[in-house]
Amino acid sequence: MKKFSHSRRRLLFNAPASAMAVMSASLPLTSQSATQKQSQAAEENWTQYVNPFAGTDGTGHTFPGAVFPFGMVAPSPDNADRGWDYTSGYQFKNPNILGFSNTHISGAGIPELGDILLMPSQGQDWHAKTKSFSARKSRQSEMAEPGYYKVELPRHQVQVELTATQRVAFHRYTFANPGKVQVLLDLQHGLHFNEPHRVKQAQSLVHHQASEVTGTLHTVAWVERQTSFLVQFDRPLLQVELLSPLDGHKANRYLLTFEVDTSCRLEVRVALSTVDEAGARQNLQSLKSLNFDAVRKETTQAWQHLLSRIEIEAPLNQKRIFYTALYHALIHPSDIADSDGRVRGPRGDVVRTASGHYYSTLSLWDTFRAVHPLFTLIVPERVDGMVETLLSHHAQQGFLPIWTAWGRESYCMIGNPALPVIADAIAKGFKGFDHQQALRAMVETSTLPRPQAPEWAQRSWDLLNTYGYLPFDLEPHGEAVSKTLEYGYGDDAVCRVAQALGQQETAVRFLQRAQSYKKLWDESTRVMRGRNSMGQWREPFNPDTPTSPLNNPGDYTEANAWQYTLTPALHDPMGLRQLMGGPQGMEHWLDQYFQRRSQVNKHLGQEAMIGQNAHGNEPSHHAAWLYSHTPSPWKGHALVERIAKRFYRDAPNGLVGNDDCGQMSAWLVFATLGFYPAQPGQAQYTLGLPLVKKARMHLGHGNEKKSLTLHVSSPGSFARQRAHQVKFEIDGKPLNSGEPLTHEALLRANQLDFKVMRDT
Asked: Residue 553's pLDDT is what?
């Protein structure tokens, strides 16, 4: 997802010197010692390969701060509070830090969150008339690892450290000397585009004797939401000064004064809740420990536990790129339920979840493609809770979520991307939710109007049912081709679930609608093209031009005709192949697609281009894998390797487009392993060729844990760029060429072999 989405990597060694300083702070780039190798033989420390700074420069829009896996809170530095470049609050090259806020979204193209900013200082003598509280960071001191961040602010004479649990952020400030120190607590701060008055209503109270500040904020930026908080300090509060509000500001800014002893330390805990202040306090009181170092250790162990579920044998640089990607894929969605299971849902009502989990930051238009299929493999224990969240959202709001932040619907992007997520879970045998309820939610989401949604976010079911596609002259907000095609994979998902539950009439109905894409295939241009209500093609027409609401009339969403023509392959690759003229026709089409000169426009999703393939945005992510349906699957192997090597780097500019809550990263994880969910929702994977010689996946959970080894054998002279064949074997039994790998077979297998047979 890119900038206006309301409808919407070379090696580290080539990075600038400033980047090198950051990376070397977390991991030496020298060869491993014998002692290190021995320790790794027991259990390798996979967290050491994660670089949280990857994607923080440019348009990756990740953040370097501390976060627990799927955590509600994420304390991190903010360089600025508004604009496209600061949707996560942070840009690596910016030396200034406004302060450290406690909630962030990783990789999204819209700014939101950034709640409760703190900024410590010693020797600055801040007062009511102080206009700037920012500081320049010491680049050499800045470092990050999973669950931990550190930086020095020389002008403020303080070192800031951050860590986090699921619901509570921990700050530790170490000052230059004992004595009086100050902390700015800015409740008005938050991330947004240019809205000057983000906080619409606020209440806060300083509890002097307890050294606490509590309150509740009502904010409107991307979504309208409520955040309750408890900020607790471990030193007596000596003085409180309420700063004069800036024009239009509704939330308070406080200057808090403390005195530190010879330890020179002040610790802060920030507990949050979507519900109320009591929920925030309970979230803090439910912790086993309030010790910063203990929390850091626990969070590091949580990351190690998840990262260890995939082990790869690879050179150091490749390990760093891979485990950074895996880390980014496991940050979201955020579990925002309080410790007692309460949460404030999409309509503002407080509900109690059955599982105790409620997931938000659901960037579903992006993540249904690879992130959620990845979850079914490596964090299956969370899948039922995620689907339960989708169904709870439907029960409260009348339709399945599209893109949620802090539990509230943003209506961002198009299609019904929750549908393949549910279909995928059902097809893969997850049973921790009501399947019949799920089907009802899927059907209603695909057929009923949404009176509470903004007019531009309505779904034109009447047009789709009348014409079999969305005519561009009747669809009021454009993107008619993209919407038609994206409804297709949703309809296919409904069909598959209906079939599984024995509801054939529903299955037939949605299967017919899933074929709507065929009405938009223009044989003369050999792309999906807009048609009006009279059946006439869009004129004038240039298939190379990317469109969106930014340059209407636009029939496509952050893409062009070439890129969206491949959307039906998400659910019906054989049908699309037939339109293209069979296996050879699809190969010829893909050859043109990857070779045809492109028009670059980063604000329309045209980033990281290879021909017409825009890897910086999600509609192109499955394209290279479609060569598996042609006589030359090796071309796909070569392209996957080319994309991975060219567009993923171990450096701050290591992502070429928004990470989009882990989708860019999940693609790299699958590419490295050599298979990909090219048809999400169908419980199968397209086989390619791993980017490593050997990998091991630890699948399942509880008593069902097992390991799967992936192994590549090839001639010594093997080159992916030359024609070759790969034979696939599961536990020594061959798979037919072009046959997908089922999820069930993957879970049963002990070994998956990729045997390169020819290089000519």
From this structure: 67
Rounded mean pLDDT of the chain? 92
Query: Cα separation of 208 and 379, whole Å?
Result: 43
Segment 434-456 mean pLDDT: 95
What's the whole-number mean pLDDT along residues 689-706?
A: 87
pLDDT grade for 28, boundaries at 50, 70 and 90: very low
pLDDT tens string 522-575? 999 999 999 999 999 999 999 999 987 666 668 999 999 999 999 999 999 999
Rounded-to-integer distance, Cα 356 and Cα 337, Å: 7
Digit-coded pLDDT (tens) for 632-673: 999 999 999 999 999 999 999 999 999 999 999 999 999 999
Structure confidence at residue 604 (pLDDT): 79
Angle at Cα 384 formed by Cα 396 and Cα 351, nearest 5°?
30
Residue pLDDT, tens place only, 395-424: 999 999 999 999 999 999 999 999 999 999
Identify any residues that bridge with 231 across adjacent strands, giving them in sequence order: 213, 270
Residue type, position 681, single letter: G
Count other Cβ atoms within 10 Å, centred on residue 277: 18
Whole-Å CA distances, 66 to 16, 170, 296, 302: 24, 9, 9, 13
158/263 Cα distance (integer angstroms): 13
Query: H-helix or E-strand containing 442?
Result: helix 435-445
Tell me how far CA of residue 428 lies from CA of 13, 421, 666, 675, 700, in angstroms. Answer: 42, 11, 19, 17, 12
Q: What number is the average pLDDT over the span 439-465?
A: 93
Q: Which helix (H) or strand (E) holds 144?
A: strand 143-145
311 vs 570: CA distance, rounded Å: 29
Dihedrals phi, psi of 700, to nearest 5 degrees: 75, -175
Radius of gyration over alpha carbons of the chain, in Å? 26
Exposed, middle or buried: residue 502 (CB in 10 Å: 0-12, 13-18, 19+)?
exposed
What H or E segment, with its residue span, contains residue 271?
Answer: strand 265-273
Whether the predicted pLDDT of 37 surpasses 80: no
Instruction: Identify whether the C-beta of residue 142 lies closer than 8 Å to the C-beta of residue 150.
Output: yes
Whether the Cβ atoms of residue 667 and residue 613 lie closer than 8 Å to each other: no
Residue count (the chain): 760
DSSP string, 469-486: S--TTT-TTS-HHHHHHH
Residues 556, 482: contact at Cβ < 8 Å?
yes
As a 3-state breakdown, the chain gives helix, strand, coil percent values, each rounded to 5, of: 35, 25, 45
Q: Alpha-carbon distance 688 to 239, whole Å?
A: 63
- 3 pLDDT above the threshold of 70: no
The b-or-e profile of 221-243 (16+ CB within 10 A means b, else e) is: bbbebbbbbbbbbebebeeeeeb
Q: Could you tell me the domains of the chain?
A: 60-307 (2.70.98.10), 310-449+466-745 (1.20.1610.10)
Cα gap 531→475, rounded to integer Å: 11
Q: How far apart are CA 231 and CA 228, in angstroms?
A: 10
Contact 613, 623 (CB under 8 A): yes
Q: Are 364 and 394 in contact (CB under 8 A)?
A: no
What average pLDDT does the segment 187-209 reach? Answer: 91
* 3-class secondary-structure state, position 660: coil
Sorted by sequence, the CB contacts under 8 Å of residue 291 that are 6+ apart come out as none
